[in-house]
Design goal:
This protein has 107 residues and is mainly alpha-helical. The protein contains three helices and no strands.
């Protein structure tokens, strides 16, 4: 009777380990994909693509350059602030999920 209990608890431990490894792999994948999304959708990139297409046909003057510099500075500041807020929110969510998984697996 004892051997079957140990066998099942061994299987449970192996399954816990397998799920933990899977969780870590998924968290790593989420972080990588988030970095890609953040880089691709930053306001500075979106605005730079839009202004470069628009300015390709125009002659660049002093005011145009000054305006572009101001817009790039502003979008960098805004996108940096927004990405910090989003990252902190995601970190809180991941920490809550980790805590819930710990409580589930410790039972």
């Amino acid at each position: 009777m004892m051997k079957t209990t140990n066998k099942y608890s061994g299987n449970i431990e192996k399954e816990k380990l397998r799920l933990r490894v899977k969780q870590l792999e998924l968290e790593k994948q989420i972080r990588k994909e988030w970095e890609d999304v953040k880089a691709g959708l930053s306001l500075s990139n979106l605005f730079a693509n839009r202004t470069s297409a628009h300015n390709a046909n125009d002659e660049k003057g002093f005011f145009s350059e000054a305006f572009n510099y101001g817009i790039k500075y502003f979008t960098n500041r805004v996108s940096g602030f927004a990405s910090e807020k989003i990252e902190s929110g995601m970190k809180k969510g991941i920490d809550k999920l980790k805590d819930k998984l710990k409580t589930v697996f410790t039972r």
